[in-house]
Specification:
about 300 residues, alpha+beta, D-amino Acid Aminotransferase, Chain A, domain 1, D-amino Acid Aminotransferase, Chain A, domain 2, 2 domains, nine-stranded mixed sheet, seven-stranded antiparallel sheet, 9 helices, about 30% strand, binds pyridoxal-5'-phosphate
């Protein structure tokens, strides 16, 4: 395997093996989590919903006053270039903007930082292991950390403020669960580390309205439901109602629609993935593998 096939990056204006892609310890992206990023999946040689990921990233840049020296079209070109250079056909492709390093020594003014952009690609990454996805995941609603308030950090600008999600993951894993969900300060369900959440309640597919990243897979799952004639609703879901749902599933670029078979001590659907979750998972996987939302990667070398 070539070095680039293990992972490739675009940094300082060129493509390098991922092991050579480094940032300074004084970059505010590192010292202050002052960064935004996005992740687009590459499935069978094509990006899935590339335009939507680029739109979200450009909106995140604007929200966070980040202005790295790159255009939307320039980013798309870079993503094509690193993917083609890696030769990877199933891959996790991340692009990142950080506040960067301070131009004025000692200054604490974020406006005088030199914002940076870089991108990297590695072989496909799943939000949960394949065997967990196949049997359906067991999820704990954290008793400890709550999801950070959207009044403090806007979750719609994809960010690295993962202290709450990581603390929740420790709690869930130590209690023998596969993953975690966090509630907000009002007792509504929000999201988990790298995914949005859905409940199927009386035949309606429901997902939280606020306090969450507006996931591209969440959007796709809602569109898939519409295409199948399954009603949907975007609204707050109190934890007590979530625990009584007929089905629960998560959505993420890293795995699509993934059924949940247990929430806290409640086993759903006799411990087997539910029928609505499975239908959505199947159609989502079909959309990702075929059809109009794919952008074929330019410039792969013929083998
Ligand atoms: C906190 C959070 N919520 C939700 C998601 C799912 O978003 P998407 O479907 O765009 O991958 C992610 C993805 O990384 C995330 O980090």
């Amino acid at each position: 395997m070539s070095d680039l096939a293990k992972g490739a990056a675009w940094i300082n204006g060129r493509v390098v093996p991922i092991a050579d892609a480094t940032i300074s310890v004084t970059d505010w992206g590192f010292t202050r989590s002052d960064a935004t990023y996005d992740v687009v999946g590459v499935w069978d040689g094509a990006f899935f919903r590339l335009d939507d990921h680029l739109d979200r990233f450009m909106a995140s840049l604007a929200k966070l006053h980040l202005n790295p020296d790159v255009t939307r079209d320039g980013i798309a070109d870079i993503l094509h270039r690193i993917t083609a250079a890696s030769g990877l056909r199933h891959a996790y492709c991340a692009f990142v903007a950080t506040r960067g390093m301070q131009r004025v020594p000692g200054s604490r003014d974020p406006r005088t930082c030199e914002n940076r952009f870089f991108a990297w690609i590695v072989p496909w990454v799943n939000v949960l292991a394949d065997d967990v996805v196949a049997r359906g995941a067991r999820m704990k609603i954290a008793e400890g950390p709550e999801r950070i308030s959207p009044n403090a950090v806007d979750p719609r600008a994809k960010n690295y403020h993962w202290g709450d999600l990581t603390a929740g993951l420790f709690e869930a894993l130590e209690d023998g669960f596969d993953t975690v969900a966090l509630k907000d300060g009002d007792g509504n369900i929000t999201e988990g580390p790298g995914f949005n959440l859905f409940a199927v309640i009386d035949g309606v597919v429901v997902t939280p309205a606020s306090g969450v990243l507006e996931g591209i897979t969440r959007r796709t799952a809602l569109e898939v439901a519409h295409s199948l004639g399954i009603p949907t609703e975007i609204r707050d879901i109190p934890v007590a109602e979530f625990l009584e749902a007929d089905e629960v599933f998560l959505s993420s670029t890293g795995g699509g629609v993934v059924p949940i078979v247990q929430v806290n001590s409640r086993i759903l659907g006799n411990g087997a993935p539910g029928p609505v979750s499975l239908r959505l998972r199947e159609t989502y996987s079909d959309w990702r593998a075929n059809g109009p939302l794919r952008t074929p990667v330019r410039g792969y070398r013929e083998n």
